[in-house]
């Protein structure tokens, strides 16, 4: 998102336009452009290219000054960023429940210091449902860029000054180490957010600038390379998706496609990127990137996640971006304000102090009445044993080390993914001795391989072996968030689940199949509390029964046939959570039934297990 002080290339502005449109479309709906998140990678490559161009030209002219470089960065980044931070905090004070407001100011603190990527690496996966409630999530990329800007000019100057002939081999070597680190790291969220595993993208831009001055292309090669670049770039945005390991090797196609377009400059592919709408969008890309996400988040919190809300909000974001570009960005870029460092330091200080005050006040819960606070508090109504007993994604645990709840000799097992955690605790609270075997993103489907949980297949094989041979176990409840695996090989997942059930039944166990439960793309505690705040009926928050049946009808039909054919018991959460017209996230007698969009709260789990008791549980 850097802007050169030299003449702008229209094709680069068009590339920026493509990048920001890809990100916006992805944020509107993951299915709209599955690989749209790679728009950020396009920005990184462009930034590496332009920063290297600026720095080397200044070094070769003998006018390089680190202070001047950082002044340009401050003038470029600070005005729009701190305007959006102020807007986000004010909107958060009006809209957000205490827990989400506390998280907002926590991330605002680190955003102000350009360290939000580290904060988000600890908070959540970029692609999970909860990410849609983080108004500053998108600032992680600014953190990566600024950390690069802190280190790269010094490194480049040292290489240029002392070992110039090794400058480009050194940068190429660092890029190679970075992509290897991104590919092999055991923590996908760290690879996504951290500068060490993103550096290769910016360094590819730097290497593209070097190649432009040292490699001569014929006109024919340039035209073909340009077409290849734009083709690879567009294919990446269409065919990448949020279930692959990213970044790493899968980040190379969009990055190399961008690098080819930067190299060729005026090839056939570049001519496609200079369309006036793309160039104009590229001109406002920084402000559009900053504004679109928080306004989307706040709209979704108030109105729920629907395309009919997202579209007008995105149109409004374009308007805000155009105004921001004209009245906030340009005045600072065209003029050099006096006392720039004082202004920058003051903005940072105000942002940090505001964040600390709100955080210290625990999100200011006194903004809401008791009923609203009780609804918001459902975000914490999960199993107290979740952290201790639930197995993290890509992790394994021995059978004997899985948790036993409610008694020393469990006869009931809840085996499945994270949807089973609260069900296990609710059953234990009813006086049953329960063994909890739950692992994130790992349905109880023997033989099933899931791309983003490499430990799942071995985990399931081991658990099935022990469950069959454990003489104390009489009943096994199989739990899966079926909607989560729609994008995987769903037939293989269902086939593996059926094999698990038949194996357990052959071993003399009573098998109970948990049917699909309603899951949501919004945060039920927030939506319930806000409905109360706005005078709406909280029991109407949820989805229509017709939508639930439409989304889950095929899975239910398969389970019905299987259960009927083999005499298996079933547990239908929809019997407790839905009526003929609607599936609810709030029950006046029980409270909020979910602690987030994908998981029942303890109140919801008690409702499900009480109204639809498990058979054969002793």
Radius of gyration: 27 Å
Number of helices: 25
Strand segment count: 12
Fraction in beta strands: 5-15%
What is the rounded distance between the termini?
Answer: 62 Å
Mean pLDDT: 91
Assign the structural class, choosing from mainly alpha, mainly beta, alpha/beta, alpha+beta, or little secondary structure.
alpha/beta
Shape: globular
Helix share bin: 55-70%
Major sheet characteristics: 6 strands, mixed
Structural features, described:
A six-stranded mixed sheet has the order 1-3-2-4-5-7, sandwiched between helices. The protein has a two-stranded antiparallel ribbon with strand order 6-8. A two-stranded antiparallel sheet has the order 9-10. The protein has helices at 10-28, 39-61, 66-95, 98-112, 116-123, 140-162, 167-184, 188-193, 199-214, 219-239, 252-264, 268-273, 276-283, 285-303, 307-334, 340-360, 370-376, 386-389, 421-429, 456-469, 490-506, 524-533, 545-566, 573-577, 602-611, and strands at residues 403-405, 412-416, 434-438, 475-479, 510-514, 542-544, 569-571, 582-584, 586-587, 591-592, 594-596, 599-600. The termini are far apart. The radius of gyration is 27 Å and the shape is globular. It has 618 residues and is of the alpha/beta class. It is built from 25 helices and twelve strands. The model has no long low-confidence stretch (mean pLDDT 91).
């Amino acid at each position: 998102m850097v802007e050169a002080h030299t003449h702008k290339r229209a094709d680069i502005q068009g590339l920026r336009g493509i990048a920001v449109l890809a990100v916006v479309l992805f944020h509107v709906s993951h299915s709209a452009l599955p690989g749209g998140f790679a728009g950020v990678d396009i920005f990184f490559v462009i930034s590496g290219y332009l920063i290297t161009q600026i720095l080397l030209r200044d070094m070769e002219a003998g006018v390089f000054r680190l202070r001047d470089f950082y002044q340009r960065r401050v003038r470029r980044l600070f005005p729009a960023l701190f305007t959006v931070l102020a807007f986000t905090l004010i909107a958060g004070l009006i809209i957000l429940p205490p827990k989400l407001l506390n998280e907002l100011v926590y991330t605002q603190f680190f955003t102000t210091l350009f360290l939000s990527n580290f904060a988000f690496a600890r908070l959540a996966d970029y692609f999970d449902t909860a990410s849609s409630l983080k108004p500053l999530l998108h600032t992680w990329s600014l953190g990566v860029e600024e950390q690069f800007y802190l280190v790269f000019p010094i490194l480049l100057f040292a290489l240029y000054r002392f070992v110039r002939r090794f400058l480009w081999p050194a940068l190429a070597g660092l890029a190679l180490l970075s992509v290897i680190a991104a590919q092999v790291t055991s923590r996908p969220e760290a690879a996504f957010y951290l500068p060490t595993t993103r550096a290769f993208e910016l360094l590819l831009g730097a290497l593209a600038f070097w190649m432009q001055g040292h490699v001569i292309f014929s006109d024919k090669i340039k035209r073909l390379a340009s077409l290849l670049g734009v083709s690879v770039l567009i294919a990446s945005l269409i065919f990448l998706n949020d279930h692959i390991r990213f970044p790493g090797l899968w980040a190379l196609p969009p990055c190399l496609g961008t690098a080819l377009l930067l190299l060729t400059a005026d090839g056939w592919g570049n001519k496609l990127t200079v369309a006036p709408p793309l160039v104009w969008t590229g001109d406002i890309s920084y402000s559009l990137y900053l504004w679109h996400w928080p306004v989307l988040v706040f709209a979704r919190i108030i109105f729920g996640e629907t395309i009919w809300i997202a579209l007008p909000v995105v149109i409004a974001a374009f308007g805000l971006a155009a105004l921001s570009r004209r009245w906030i960005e340009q005045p600072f870029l065209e003029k050099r304000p006096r006392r720039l460092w004082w202004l920058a330091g003051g903005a940072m200080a105000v942002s940090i102090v505001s964040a600390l005050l709100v955080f210290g006040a625990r999100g200011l819960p006194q903004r809401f009445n008791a009923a609203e606070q009780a609804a918001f508090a459902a975000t914490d109504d999960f199993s107290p044993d979740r952290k201790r007993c639930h197995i993290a994604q890509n992790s394994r645990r021995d059978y004997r080390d899985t948790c036993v709840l409610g008694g020393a000799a469990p006869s009931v097992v809840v085996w499945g993914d994270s949807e089973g955690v609260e069900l296990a605790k609710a059953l234990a609270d009813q006086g049953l001795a329960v063994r909890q075997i739950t692992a994130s993103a790992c349905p109880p489907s023997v033989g099933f391989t899931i791309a983003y949980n490499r430990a799942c297949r071995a985990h399931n094989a081991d658990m099935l072996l022990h469950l069959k041979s454990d003489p104390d176990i009489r009943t096994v409840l199989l739990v899966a968030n079926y909607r989560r695996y729609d994008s995987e090989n769903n037939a293989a997942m269902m086939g593996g689940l059926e094999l698990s059930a038949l194996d357990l039944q052959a071993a003399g166990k009573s098998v109970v199949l948990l049917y699909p439960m309603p899951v949501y793309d919004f945060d039920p505690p927030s939506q319930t509390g806000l409905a109360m705040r706005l005078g709406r009926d909280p029991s109407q928050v949820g989805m229509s029964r017709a939508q639930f049946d439409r989304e889950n009808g095929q899975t239910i039909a398969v389970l019905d046939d299987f259960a009927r054919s083999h005499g298996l018991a079933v547990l239908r959460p929809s019997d407790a959570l839905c009526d003929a017209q609607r599936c609810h996230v709030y029950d006046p007698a029980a409270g909020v039934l979910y602690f987030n969009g994908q998981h029942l709260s303890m109140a919801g789990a008690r409702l499900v297990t009480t109204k639809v008791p498990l058979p054969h549980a002793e």
